Amino acid sequence: MATPLDLDQLQTFIAISDTGSFTRAAGEVHRTQSAVSMQMRRLEERIGKPLFEKNGRTNRLSEEGEKLLSYARRIMRLNRETLAAFDDQRLEGHIRIGTPDDYADRFLPEIMARFSRSNPRVELTVICEPTVNLVDLIRRNQLDIALITHDEDKGACEIVRREPLLWVASQAHCVHEEEVLPLAVGRPTCLWRRAAIDLLDQMEREYKILCTSFSATVINAAVLSGLAVSILPECALRPGMRVLGEADGFGALPDCRIGLLRGHTSQPDVVDALARHIAESLDNISLPAADEPAGFDFSSMTAIRTRRHRPNMIPGW
Known about the structure:
Elements: H1 7-19, H2 22-29, H3 33-47, E1 52-55, E2 58-61, H4 63-85, E3 92-99, H5 101-118, E4 121-128, H6 131-139, E5 145-149, E6 158-163, E7 165-170, E8 181-185, H7 191-203, E9 207-212, H8 216-224, E10 230-233, E11 241-244, E12 256-262, H9 268-284, H10 302-305, E13 313-315
Parallel strand pairs: 3-4, 3-5, 8-9
Antiparallel strand pairs: 1-2, 2-13, 5-12, 6-12, 7-10, 7-11
Helix pairs in contact: 1-2, 1-3, 1-4, 2-3, 5-9
């Protein structure tokens, strides 16, 4: 029978990936750097594969290391959930979380299910509003935490995921070929709308705003019915949508950065726990795929889909 993996070694391995350094990871797990190095040697021996590779004076995760990292996070998360299930001092309270409906539809089911299993005594109230409204609700202390689209003009937040922002149209229609491009977009404060219009202006492409809404359901309906082209992050793609690329005459848009914004709360422990669950869920959640259009190479998006907001350069072996 194979010897089980050591949880302490996995915890250290994750700390190295998250901090980007053996030295900093040693501080996180309260061990010496030599002890951390020894743990990693033993973990490599147990796995039977090299987990790090040299890159100049630094070490970075190898391909096998990246593969193990995904499993390690899941194992440690399940370990925490198991302990929480038998903890009589489990967290309890009432947390108000806000998110745009684009993210609510794609991310919230997994986030809520996982968090509720570990913290059944915590009640969640979910408010779906556009990012600009959520920022205001946080400032007015009407939300404890919000999952938002990061806008530098609105201040700093904790970035938990990056995704490509994409031009999308209906797979069954050719609305993107119209001389004056019809658009279905958010209101003027929407970052995605501003990015799309700026790019169209640079391209000197004529367009008209056919539909304006903060509702993801409305925007998706306009796209899938062939009425308009829109701009969506990859997580919001739906079957029947076509991603438009350079071959279709559409330039690249900036990345969509998804972040966490915290309010002033009387329950910081519960909010911290929920924030960890959100970050872990978004780090591991899989993405849907739109229908592949002719002339667009989805294999070129593989690297984008697997990106995570964490360092991978590991100095100090």
